[in-house]
Amino acid sequence: MNGGLSRNALLVPGGRICLVAMGFAGNILIVRELGPTHFGVYALCTAFIKILSGCLGDALDLAVLRRVPLYVRTDPPRAHRVFWAALWLRLATGGGTLAIAALLHGWIAEMVFGGEQGVVLLLLAAAGVLGELLVR
Questions:
Q1: How many CA atoms lie within 13 A of 26 on its CB side?
Q2: What is the pLDDT of residues 47-77, one digit of tens each?
Q3: pTM for the full predicted model
Q4: Cα 101 to chain center, whole Å?
Q5: Beta carbons of 122 and 105 less than 8 angstroms apart
Q6: What are phi and psi of 73, to 5 degrees?
Q7: How far out from the chain centre does Cα 51 lie?
Q8: What gap in Å lies between CA 43 and CA 47, rounded to an integer?
Q9: What whole-number distance in Å separates Cα of residue 101 and Cα of residue 123?
């Protein structure tokens, strides 16, 4: 038992370190290809995705993790309803983000990117928020 615990205690941080290292290596390749200016725009879009999906998705994850295990054995239909409600909330939140970006694209692109050239990136970042919320 103790050997398995120590092995898992090493595997979890080790896996996280590997993921961070792969992300760092990926960023190095991306910055070499895009150059500093375009990489800054890319970094801004990924930060937007991480901030929104983190703020919106973490709360839903916590709610599901607190509620669903309580009902899995005693009231499975209720557990399924909580799970599906969270999924629909994710879809509505991500879709709302995409709709706001689509409706206010000109104003947001001007404010964030300094011109209309960032509209496509803005819409892709909003779609990224939706995707991140649904894949979590």
A1: 8
A2: 888 888 888 888 888 888 888 888 888 999 9
A3: 0.71
A4: 16
A5: yes
A6: -85, -40
A7: 8
A8: 6
A9: 6
